[in-house]
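sry for the spam today, last one i promise. struct tokens for design, 327 residues
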């Protein structure tokens, strides 16, 4: 390198150094203070007031459970949620493959849920793999029943919503059917006493649709949730056949004092809706003893904490409207 070139290079390095602010950034760094924050975090988890899952026992995977939901929907509605084209000649192979994978994935997550539940309750955990395999198989055997019930749910939507053009539209795009489908899967796991997984499933659907259905609710076939946003169905709710709910409906429990929560944990706290009931938008029905008789129609924006007999219409008195025109 010539003397002239070397001088130019040194000048360039000097100029870059003059404009580089790396030293200023390094001086402003607070990395050396982070260990103190970590120490405080560790102190937080050493108390009984905070929560952690620091254990060699794995907790169920939220991501894996969402995968299970999506795989189950591919089985419930073959051809709708898959990239592969299905024909009569390959359908049995496809369903067999999907069902086997679903069984394996669910067995693994149920085993984790059982072990986590045993740890949480300080119980000895025995035969968790065998129990998980048995529960996963028992769940798989309920899929034909779920398919039949969902078919009735779809027909109820088509019959109750003039805007629905076809079963395909309902299956592909209706949030009500998505929430109901996930609920029906989760309810079977809930009935089998599988810990935590059913609630993870329905809360995922809640986040996707705005419809909150507790997996413990007992819901007959033919449920139509129209629009759906803001619907809440509590754990001990009982819903009969061919019931229609509109957006913002709450089937909830009366507020309880803190000291009553444990005593009422396994008691009926949410209402019963008998067959063919319609509940319009933004209505709240509360209480375990509240029964809405078959064929009743409950209007919108109503607060109801008492039972009504069969075939009753409950409507708000027409409000007085006031019109104002500055002209």
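last one done:
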């Amino acid at each position: 390198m010539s003397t002239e070139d070397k001088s130019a290079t040194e000048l360039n390095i000097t100029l870059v150094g003059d404009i580089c602010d790396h030293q200023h950034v390094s001086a402003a760094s607070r990395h050396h203070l982070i260990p103190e924050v970590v120490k405080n975090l560790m102190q937080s988890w050493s108390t009984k007031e905070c929560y952690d899952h620091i254990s060699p026992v794995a907790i169920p995977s939220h991501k894996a459970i969402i995968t299970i939901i999506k795989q189950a929907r591919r089985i419930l509605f073959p051809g709708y949620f898959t990239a592969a084209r299905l024909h009569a000649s390959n359908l049995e192979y496809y369903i067999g493959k999907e069902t086997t994978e679903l069984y394996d994935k669910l067995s693994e997550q149920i085993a984790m849920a059982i072990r986590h539940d045993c740890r949480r309750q300080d119980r000895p955990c025995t035969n968790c793999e065998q129990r998980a395999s048995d529960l996963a198989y028992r769940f798989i055997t309920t899929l034909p029943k779920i398919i039949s019930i969902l078919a009735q749910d779809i027909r109820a939507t088509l019959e109750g919503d003039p805007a629905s053009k076809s079963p395909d539209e309902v299956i592909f795009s209706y949030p009500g059917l998505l929430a109901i489908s996930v609920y029906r899967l989760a309810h079977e796991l809930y009935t089998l006493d599988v810990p935590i997984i059913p609630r993870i499933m329905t809360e995922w659907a809640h986040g996707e649709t705005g419809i909150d259905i507790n997996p413990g609710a007992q819901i007959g076939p033919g449920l139509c949730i129209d629009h759906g946003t803001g619907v809440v169905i509590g754990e001990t709710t009982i819903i009969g056949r061919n019931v229609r709910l509109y957006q913002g409906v709450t089937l909830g429990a009366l507020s309880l004092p803190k000291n009553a929560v444990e005593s009422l944990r396994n008691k009926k706290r949410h209402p019963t809706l008998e067959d063919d009931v319609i509940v319009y938008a933004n209505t709240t029905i509360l209480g375990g003893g509240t029964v809405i008789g078959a064929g009743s129609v409950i209007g919108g924006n109503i607060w109801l904490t008492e039972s009504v007999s069969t075939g009753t219409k409950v409507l708000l008195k027409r409000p007085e409207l006031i019109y104002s025109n500055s002209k």
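Residues 91-120 form the longest helix (30 residues). ok im logging off now
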